[in-house]
Amino acid sequence: MAISRNKWLIAFTVMLPTLIEIIDTSIVNVSLDHIRGSLSAGIEEATWAINAYLVANAIVIPMSGWLSRLFGRKNYQIGSIVLFTVSSFLCGSAWSLPSLIFFRVLQGMAGGGLVPVSQSILLEAFPPAQHGVAMAIFGVGTMVGPILGPIMGGWITDNWSWRWIFYINIPIGMLAVVMNAIVIQDPPWMTRMKMRINYLGLIFLAVGLGSLQLVLDKGQQEDWFSSDLIVIFALTSFFALALLVINELNVEQPIVNLRLFRDPTFATGTVVMFFLFFNLFGSIVLLPIYVQSLMGYTSYQAGLVLGPGGLATLCVMPLVGKLVQKVNPKKILGAGILICSATTWLMSQFNLQADFWTFVLPRITLGLGMGLSFIPLTTLTLSHIPREKMGQATAMYNLLRNMGGSVGIAFVTTLLARRSQFHQARLVDHLSVYDPAFVMAKSKAAGALVAKAASGTGAEGMIYGQLLRQARMLAFNDTFFVTSLLLFSVLILVFFMQRAPARTAGTAP
User: Range of 149's domain?
Assistant: First the structure.
C-alpha cells in the first residue's frame, strides 16, 4: 500500500484542512454587521459573502473525486489548500463587497474538495476493522466545526477585526500544505490519469447545484414561489440536474459517478445522512432563535446553550469508534437516530417558563445522539465501496450531508414563519370583549399600567404583545415536532443497510 506512514500522523494531517474548511462555512455569519459597516453595504448585499461560499462549495464537492483522478489526489489536495489559504488572505484584504464576494467564491471552490478528499485518505490510512476510529476522528471536525465557527468568529471580530476571521486561516493553511506534501502519498489507483473532460457535465453540475443552493438560501426571504426570481432559479436547477443525470449515465468517465447509487446500502445511507443533518441543522438554527427572541437571552447565552452539545459529541465519538468494532453498527445507528428524534420531540415541549437547563439538556442529548449516529452510518454506507471509487463516494456522501443541512435550515425557517401566522390568526379570534378571559386579562393589564398613566389601548397592546409571543412559541413547537417526525420516519431504512464482510470492505488490506 502506498500510504504506509503512521496512520495517526495522516489523521492529523488531513484534519487540518478539513477543520478550517468546515469552520469557514459558518464563521462569517456573526460578523456580517461589521463587514457591511466596513464595506458600506446593506445587510441583504452582505449575506452574499455567505451565499457565495456555500454555492461554490456545493458545486465542487460532488466533482472532487473526479478532480482527484484528473490531477492526482495529492496534487489536488495540496492545490486546494494553497488556493484556500491565498483566497483567505484576499478575503481579509477585500476593499469592497464585490471583491469580498469574488474571493469567497474562490475560497468556496478551494474548500469544496478538502472534506471528501480528506475523508477518503483517512479511510485508506486505517484498516477496515478500524474505520469506526477513523470516522470518529473525522466526525470531530464535521460536528464541532459548525458550532466552533460562530464562537470563534464572534470573539475574533469583537477583539480584533472581522478581517482576522480570514487571516487566521493562513498559518494553519501553510502548516497543512507542508504536512500534506511530506506525509501523504498517492496509492497507484489515485495517481494522475489522462481523462476526457466532460464539459457538458461540468456546466450542468455548476448551473444545477448553484441554482439549487440559491433557491434554498433565498427562498424564505423572497417568499418562495411567489417570487419570479425563485421560480426561475428553481426551474433552472431542475432542468440542469435532470440533464446532468442523463449526461453522466451515458459517458465513460463521469464527473459525478451516479452508478454508485446502484449499491442499496450506499443509496440508503446517503438518504439517512441527509435527514440526520436536516434534523441537526434545523435544530441548532431554531434553538438560539427561540432563546433570544422569546426568552431574552443574549448572543453569548445562546452560545452557552449550544456549546455543551458539541462537547457531548466530542466525548462520545471516540467511544463509539471503538464500539462499532464489537457491536453491529446498525444497532448503534438505530439507537442514535431514535435519541435524536426523541430529543427534537422534547424541544417541541418547550414553554415560556423554561429555565436555562431545560434548553441545555436536550441539546446535550442531541449531541450524544449525533455522536452515536455519524460513525456507524458512515462506516455502513461506505463499507461496500471499492477503494478506487472511494473518493467519488465520499464526495457524493458529503454533498448529501451539506444539502441536508441547507434544506433543513430552509424548511424550518419557512415552517416557523407559516405556523407563526397561523397561530397568530387563531389566537386573535379570542381578543374580543365577549371573551371572559380577554376581559379579565385586559383588566389586569390596565391595572398594572395605572402607575404609568397607561390607557386602555396600552393594556390591549400589552396583551397583543403576549399573544404574538405565544403564537411564536407554538410555531416553534410545531416546527420541532415536524423535524422530529421526519427523522423518525427514516429509522426503518436502517434495517435495509448491510454491513460488508471484511474481505470486501472499501479499502486496501
Answer: 1-195
Query: To the nearest whole number, what is the mean pLDDT of the chain?
Result: 78
Q: Percent of the chain at pLDDT above 90?
A: 7
State pTM to two decimals.
0.75
Integer Cα distance of 309 and 366 in angstroms: 7
Residues 332 and 241 reside in one and the same domain: no
CA dihedral 238, 241, 242, 245 (to 10 degrees): -160
**432 and 498 share one domain:** no
User: What's the N-to-C CA distance of the chain in angstroms?
Assistant: 8
Please state, in angstroms and rounded to a whole number, the distance separating the CA atoms of residues 392 and 351: 45
Q: Which amino acid is at 395?
A: A
Q: Are residues 77 and 40 in the same domain?
A: yes
Contact 472, 254 (CB under 8 A): no
Half-sphere exposure of 345 (CA within 13 A, CB side): 11
Residue 95 sits in the same domain as residue 235: no
CATH of the domain at 327: 1.20.1250.20
- Residue 132 neighbours by CB under 8 Å, 6+ apart: 320, 321, 322, 323, 324, 325, 329, 375, 376, 379
Structurally, how many domains does the chain consist of?
Answer: 4
If we measure between CA atoms, which residue out of 140, 481, 65 comes closest to residue 310?
A: 140
Q: Is the pLDDT of residue 4 over 60?
A: no
pLDDT at res. 452: 46
Contact criterion met (CB below 8 Å) for 255 and 66:
yes
On whether both 247 and 362 belong to a single domain, the answer is: no
Given pLDDT bands bounded at 50, 70 and 90, which one contains residue 483?
very high
Same domain, 17 and 159: yes
Query: Cα(188)–Cα(177) distance, rounded to whole angstroms?
Result: 22
Mean pLDDT (whole number) for 261-286: 87
Task: Give the pLDDT confidence of 406-439 residue by residue, as tens digits.
Answer: 788 888 888 888 888 888 877 776 555 455 555 5
Could you tell me the pLDDT band of residue 506, with boundaries at 50, 70 and 90?
A: very low
Within this chain, do residues 60 and 183 fall inside the same structural domain, yes or no?
yes
Q: Give the C-alpha separation, 129 to 4, whole Å.
A: 17
- DSSP string covering 349-418, please? T--TT--HHHHHHHHHHHHHHHHHHHHHHHHHHHTTS-GGGHHHHHHHHHHHHHHHHHHHHHHHHHHHHH
